[in-house]
Structure formats: structure tokens, C-alpha cells
Design goal:
Blueprint: H1 2-42, H2 47-70, H3 79-107, H4 113-139, H5 148-158
Helix pairs in contact: 1-2, 1-4, 2-3, 3-4
Length: 159
């Protein structure tokens, strides 16, 4: 019965984190998507520069939401360490987005609004998968579980 409870608790935490990550992600996505389109199609900036500027703006939304809401129950290692890792990993995510946009725009020669936005959303989706995994793995890690020695007295007391 303890195994079922532990599995349920773990699933519940994962579902909660995924939901919160999704809400923060939607807000960051709106900043990225709207900003990229405004900068590219209205202000006339290049396809990669517009995405880079909008994504950097969305990083602020993402950092605040994920640090103080999504992963608030996870182990903290200090704002400086978390911030540096967050920026580095978001740089990788930005690279994924730019690769998708660059492939579509420069290699395939597609310059329409629809194809640009398909490439943008594809890049954001791939980068989001990477970011979720990397945040959980390196930036905001799970709390260390109790040592097996500490868990044994409780287990034997139930027998």
C-alpha cells in the first residue's frame, strides 16, 4: 500500500509541476510569439533577430514563474547559480528555436507568415521540451529523498 501512495504522490507532484510549467510556458510563449511577429513583420527586423529579442524578453517571465511558482518546492541552490544555469540552458533553447527558423527561412527559402510561424512554433515546442527536462535536471532539482537508514525504522515499526 505504501508503494501505491508513493507512486500517487510522485504522479501528483509531476502533474502539478507540468500544469504550472504549462501556464508559465503559455505566458512566455505569448511574449515570444507576439514579440517575434511584431518585430519581424511590423518593425522589419530580420527573422532571427526578432526571435532572439522576443525570447530574451520571455526569459524574464519564464524565470520568475518557474523559480517562484512551478519549482518552488524543489531544492534551491542560490539565485546566482540558478540564474547562470537558467541563462545557459535558455541559450540552448534559443539555439533550437533559431535553428528551426533558420532552416525554414534560409535553407528552404520560405518567407511567408504562415511558414514562419509554423517554424517558430515548432522551434518553441522542441525548445520547451528541452527546457522542462533541463530545469528539472540541473536548475531546480528534486529534494533529496530520505536515506534508506532513516526509512528503515518506520518500515520495521509497521511489521
Amino acid at each position: 500500500m505504501n508503494a501505491v501512495r508513493a507512486l500517487y504522490a510522485r504522479f501528483r507532484l509531476l502533474a502539478s509541476e507540468l500544469g504550472k510549467f504549462g501556464i508559465v510556458g503559455v505566458l512566455a510563449f505569448l511574449v515570444t510569439d507576439a514579440g517575434t511577429n511584431l518585430l519581424h513583420f511590423r518593425a522589419g527586423l530580420g527573422p532571427l533577430n526578432s526571435n532572439m529579442i522576443a525570447t530574451i524578453a520571455a526569459m524574464g517571465v519564464s524565470y520568475a514563474g518557474n523559480r517562484y511558482w512551478t519549482f518552488r518546492s524543489r531544492q534551491r541552490s542560490g539565485v546566482q547559480r540558478e540564474g547562470i544555469l537558467f541563462l545557459l540552458l535558455n541559450g540552448v533553447g534559443l539555439g533550437i528555436q533559431l535553428a528551426c527558423l533558420g532552416f525554414s527561412t534560409y535553407l528552404l527559402g520560405l518567407h511567408g507568415k504562415l511558414t514562419y510561424n509554423v517554424a517558430l512554433v515548432t522551434g518553441i515546442a522542441l525548445a520547451t521540451l528541452f527546457r522542462y527536462w533541463s530545469y528539472k535536471t540541473w536548475v531546480w532539482r528534486a529534494q533529496p529523498s530520505a536515506s534508506p537508514a532513516a526509512a528503515r525504522p518506520r518500515e520495521t515499526a509497521l511489521l
